[in-house]
Amino acid sequence: MASSASSCVLAAVLLVLAATASPAAGQKETRLRVFWHDVVSGPNSTVAQVAQAPTSNTSSTGFGTVLVIDDPLTDGPNLTTSRLVGRAQGMYVAAGKDTLSLMMAMNFVFVDGDYNGSSLAIFGPNPAERAVREMPVVGGTGVFRFARGYCQARTRWFNATTGDATVEYKIHLRHD
Ligand SMILES: *[C@@H]1O[C@H](CO)[C@@H](O)[C@H](O)[C@H]1NC(C)=O
Ligand SMILES: *[C@@H]1O[C@H](CO)[C@@H](O)[C@H](O)[C@H]1NC(C)=O
Ligand SMILES: *[C@@H]1O[C@H](CO)[C@@H](O)[C@H](O)[C@H]1NC(C)=O
Ligand SMILES: *[C@@H]1O[C@H](CO)[C@@H](O)[C@H](O)[C@H]1NC(C)=O
Ligand SMILES: *[C@@H]1O[C@H](CO)[C@@H](O)[C@H](O)[C@H]1NC(C)=O
To answer: Ligand 4: which of 84, 87, 116 to mutate, most ligand atoms within 8 Å of CB?
Structure first.
Protein backbone atom coordinates (compact mmCIF):
# COMPACT_ATOMS: atom_id res chain seq x y z
CA MET A 1 0.00 0.00 0.00
CA ALA A 2 2.61 2.48 1.17
CA SER A 3 4.93 1.63 -1.70
CA SER A 4 2.21 2.05 -4.35
CA ALA A 5 1.28 5.42 -2.79
CA SER A 6 4.87 6.57 -2.89
CA SER A 7 5.29 5.40 -6.49
CA CYS A 8 2.18 7.43 -7.33
CA VAL A 9 3.81 10.46 -5.71
CA LEU A 10 7.03 9.74 -7.59
CA ALA A 11 5.13 9.45 -10.90
CA ALA A 12 3.38 12.77 -10.20
CA VAL A 13 6.69 14.46 -9.42
CA LEU A 14 8.22 13.07 -12.62
CA LEU A 15 5.22 14.33 -14.62
CA VAL A 16 5.62 17.81 -13.15
CA LEU A 17 9.36 17.76 -13.92
CA ALA A 18 8.67 16.58 -17.48
CA ALA A 19 6.08 19.35 -17.90
CA THR A 20 8.46 22.09 -16.81
CA ALA A 21 11.38 20.76 -18.86
CA SER A 22 9.61 20.64 -22.22
CA PRO A 23 7.34 22.98 -24.21
CA ALA A 24 3.66 23.20 -23.31
CA ALA A 25 1.33 20.92 -25.29
CA GLY A 26 1.09 22.07 -28.88
CA GLN A 27 4.08 24.39 -28.64
CA LYS A 28 7.03 24.12 -30.94
CA GLU A 29 10.65 24.41 -30.03
CA THR A 30 12.95 26.15 -32.50
CA ARG A 31 16.67 26.82 -32.47
CA LEU A 32 18.17 29.17 -34.99
CA ARG A 33 21.41 30.99 -35.56
CA VAL A 34 21.99 34.29 -37.34
CA PHE A 35 24.92 36.63 -37.70
CA TRP A 36 24.27 40.27 -36.82
CA HIS A 37 26.39 42.91 -38.53
CA ASP A 38 26.81 46.30 -36.92
CA VAL A 39 28.11 48.42 -39.81
CA VAL A 40 29.23 51.60 -38.09
CA SER A 41 31.61 52.96 -40.74
CA GLY A 42 31.45 53.69 -44.44
CA PRO A 43 28.76 54.90 -46.85
CA ASN A 44 26.44 51.98 -46.08
CA SER A 45 26.46 52.37 -42.32
CA THR A 46 23.49 50.70 -40.62
CA VAL A 47 23.94 52.48 -37.28
CA ALA A 48 22.82 56.04 -36.49
CA GLN A 49 23.77 57.70 -33.23
CA VAL A 50 20.80 59.84 -32.27
CA ALA A 51 21.72 61.07 -28.77
CA GLN A 52 24.49 61.23 -26.25
CA ALA A 53 24.86 62.43 -22.66
CA PRO A 54 25.67 66.13 -22.25
CA THR A 55 28.58 65.50 -19.87
CA SER A 56 32.00 64.39 -21.09
CA ASN A 57 32.74 62.31 -17.98
CA THR A 58 31.13 59.19 -19.29
CA SER A 59 33.11 58.74 -22.49
CA SER A 60 34.88 55.53 -21.47
CA THR A 61 31.61 53.59 -21.47
CA GLY A 62 29.61 55.94 -23.71
CA PHE A 63 26.98 56.08 -20.96
CA GLY A 64 23.85 57.81 -22.23
CA THR A 65 24.47 57.21 -25.93
CA VAL A 66 21.50 56.05 -28.01
CA LEU A 67 21.99 54.35 -31.37
CA VAL A 68 19.34 53.26 -33.86
CA ILE A 69 20.17 50.24 -36.00
CA ASP A 70 18.98 48.52 -39.16
CA ASP A 71 21.63 45.79 -39.12
CA PRO A 72 21.77 42.99 -41.68
CA LEU A 73 21.21 39.45 -40.36
CA THR A 74 22.87 36.72 -42.41
CA ASP A 75 23.02 32.93 -42.27
CA GLY A 76 26.83 32.90 -42.20
CA PRO A 77 29.56 35.01 -40.61
CA ASN A 78 30.64 36.96 -43.69
CA LEU A 79 28.42 39.93 -44.58
CA THR A 80 29.63 39.96 -48.20
CA THR A 81 29.29 36.29 -49.03
CA SER A 82 26.49 35.06 -46.72
CA ARG A 83 22.76 35.10 -47.47
CA LEU A 84 20.72 37.98 -46.03
CA VAL A 85 17.88 36.47 -43.96
CA GLY A 86 16.63 39.50 -42.06
CA ARG A 87 17.28 42.85 -40.45
CA ALA A 88 17.81 43.75 -36.81
CA GLN A 89 15.80 46.94 -36.44
CA GLY A 90 15.68 48.85 -33.19
CA MET A 91 18.14 50.48 -30.91
CA TYR A 92 20.74 50.04 -28.25
CA VAL A 93 21.55 52.35 -25.39
CA ALA A 94 24.83 52.56 -23.48
CA ALA A 95 23.27 51.95 -20.08
CA GLY A 96 26.38 51.16 -18.02
CA LYS A 97 27.96 54.11 -16.24
CA ASP A 98 31.17 52.35 -15.21
CA THR A 99 31.17 49.33 -17.52
CA LEU A 100 30.36 48.89 -21.19
CA SER A 101 26.82 47.56 -20.92
CA LEU A 102 24.23 47.99 -23.65
CA MET A 103 20.50 47.76 -23.32
CA MET A 104 19.28 46.11 -26.53
CA ALA A 105 15.74 46.68 -27.82
CA MET A 106 15.39 45.25 -31.30
CA ASN A 107 13.21 43.26 -33.66
CA PHE A 108 14.71 40.56 -35.82
CA VAL A 109 12.59 41.00 -38.96
CA PHE A 110 13.00 38.05 -41.32
CA VAL A 111 12.92 38.72 -45.07
CA ASP A 112 13.95 35.35 -46.52
CA GLY A 113 13.81 31.64 -45.88
CA ASP A 114 11.39 29.72 -43.64
CA TYR A 115 10.79 32.70 -41.36
CA ASN A 116 10.17 35.33 -44.07
CA GLY A 117 7.53 37.75 -42.81
CA SER A 118 7.92 36.73 -39.17
CA SER A 119 9.76 38.59 -36.43
CA LEU A 120 11.23 38.20 -32.97
CA ALA A 121 11.42 40.86 -30.26
CA ILE A 122 14.63 40.87 -28.22
CA PHE A 123 15.00 43.06 -25.17
CA GLY A 124 17.74 42.76 -22.61
CA PRO A 125 21.20 43.55 -21.30
CA ASN A 126 24.33 43.18 -23.40
CA PRO A 127 27.59 43.54 -21.45
CA ALA A 128 29.45 43.68 -24.76
CA GLU A 129 32.92 42.85 -23.45
CA ARG A 130 31.85 39.44 -22.12
CA ALA A 131 32.44 36.43 -24.34
CA VAL A 132 28.80 35.29 -24.09
CA ARG A 133 25.87 37.60 -23.45
CA GLU A 134 22.40 36.22 -22.82
CA MET A 135 19.30 38.20 -23.69
CA PRO A 136 15.59 37.34 -23.47
CA VAL A 137 13.37 36.88 -26.50
CA VAL A 138 10.16 38.47 -25.26
CA GLY A 139 7.80 37.77 -28.16
CA GLY A 140 7.31 37.24 -31.84
CA THR A 141 4.98 37.43 -34.83
CA GLY A 142 4.06 35.11 -37.71
CA VAL A 143 5.49 31.64 -37.15
CA PHE A 144 6.89 32.93 -33.86
CA ARG A 145 3.57 33.96 -32.25
CA PHE A 146 3.66 33.66 -28.46
CA ALA A 147 7.44 33.18 -28.63
CA ARG A 148 9.49 33.13 -25.47
CA GLY A 149 13.10 32.19 -25.15
CA TYR A 150 16.60 33.48 -25.01
CA CYS A 151 19.56 34.14 -27.23
CA GLN A 152 23.27 33.93 -26.65
CA ALA A 153 25.45 36.48 -28.42
CA ARG A 154 29.13 35.97 -29.18
CA THR A 155 31.27 38.54 -30.99
CA ARG A 156 32.88 36.82 -33.98
CA TRP A 157 34.66 39.78 -35.55
CA PHE A 158 35.38 43.31 -34.38
CA ASN A 159 37.32 46.16 -35.93
CA ALA A 160 38.45 48.41 -33.09
CA THR A 161 39.31 51.20 -35.56
CA THR A 162 35.86 51.47 -37.12
CA GLY A 163 33.67 49.84 -34.46
CA ASP A 164 32.25 47.45 -37.07
CA ALA A 165 31.28 44.12 -35.54
CA THR A 166 29.84 40.73 -36.42
CA VAL A 167 28.02 38.96 -33.61
CA GLU A 168 26.64 35.42 -33.69
CA TYR A 169 23.17 35.08 -32.13
CA LYS A 170 22.11 31.57 -31.14
CA ILE A 171 18.38 31.66 -30.39
CA HIS A 172 16.34 29.05 -28.50
CA LEU A 173 12.58 29.52 -28.62
CA ARG A 174 9.25 28.04 -27.66
CA HIS A 175 6.30 29.30 -29.65
CA ASP A 176 2.90 28.33 -31.09
C1 LIG B 1 26.80 50.29 -50.58
O2 LIG B 1 25.55 49.80 -51.05
C3 LIG B 1 25.41 49.95 -52.46
C4 LIG B 1 24.00 49.57 -52.81
O5 LIG B 1 23.63 48.34 -52.23
C6 LIG B 1 26.45 49.07 -53.15
O7 LIG B 1 26.34 49.21 -54.54
C8 LIG B 1 27.84 49.51 -52.70
O9 LIG B 1 28.82 48.63 -53.22
C10 LIG B 1 27.96 49.50 -51.17
N11 LIG B 1 29.22 50.07 -50.76
C12 LIG B 1 30.02 49.49 -49.86
C13 LIG B 1 31.27 50.21 -49.55
O14 LIG B 1 29.72 48.44 -49.32
C1 LIG C 1 33.67 64.16 -13.58
O2 LIG C 1 34.09 63.20 -12.62
C3 LIG C 1 34.95 63.72 -11.64
C4 LIG C 1 35.44 62.55 -10.77
O5 LIG C 1 34.39 61.69 -10.45
C6 LIG C 1 34.22 64.80 -10.84
O7 LIG C 1 35.10 65.38 -9.87
C8 LIG C 1 33.75 65.90 -11.77
O9 LIG C 1 32.96 66.86 -11.07
C10 LIG C 1 32.92 65.30 -12.91
N11 LIG C 1 32.61 66.34 -13.92
C12 LIG C 1 31.40 66.51 -14.45
C13 LIG C 1 31.26 67.55 -15.51
O14 LIG C 1 30.44 65.80 -14.15
C1 LIG D 1 34.32 38.06 -46.44
O2 LIG D 1 34.58 37.47 -47.69
C3 LIG D 1 35.28 38.33 -48.58
C4 LIG D 1 35.33 37.65 -49.95
O5 LIG D 1 35.74 36.31 -49.81
C6 LIG D 1 36.66 38.63 -48.02
O7 LIG D 1 37.35 39.50 -48.87
C8 LIG D 1 36.48 39.30 -46.65
O9 LIG D 1 37.74 39.48 -46.04
C10 LIG D 1 35.61 38.44 -45.74
N11 LIG D 1 35.32 39.22 -44.53
C12 LIG D 1 35.56 38.77 -43.30
C13 LIG D 1 35.19 39.68 -42.18
O14 LIG D 1 36.04 37.68 -43.08
C1 LIG E 1 9.29 37.33 -48.44
O2 LIG E 1 7.96 37.73 -48.21
C3 LIG E 1 7.59 38.88 -48.97
C4 LIG E 1 6.21 39.31 -48.52
O5 LIG E 1 5.34 38.22 -48.48
C6 LIG E 1 7.65 38.55 -50.45
O7 LIG E 1 7.31 39.70 -51.22
C8 LIG E 1 9.07 38.12 -50.79
O9 LIG E 1 9.14 37.72 -52.15
C10 LIG E 1 9.52 36.99 -49.90
N11 LIG E 1 10.92 36.75 -50.13
C12 LIG E 1 11.41 35.54 -50.37
C13 LIG E 1 12.86 35.46 -50.64
O14 LIG E 1 10.72 34.54 -50.34
C1 LIG F 1 39.65 47.98 -39.67
O2 LIG F 1 39.22 49.07 -40.43
C3 LIG F 1 40.27 49.84 -40.93
C4 LIG F 1 39.66 51.08 -41.59
O5 LIG F 1 38.72 50.70 -42.58
C6 LIG F 1 41.09 49.03 -41.90
O7 LIG F 1 42.18 49.78 -42.38
C8 LIG F 1 41.61 47.79 -41.14
O9 LIG F 1 42.29 46.93 -42.05
C10 LIG F 1 40.47 47.04 -40.51
N11 LIG F 1 41.00 45.96 -39.65
C12 LIG F 1 40.51 44.74 -39.69
C13 LIG F 1 41.12 43.77 -38.72
O14 LIG F 1 39.64 44.37 -40.46
So the answer is: 116
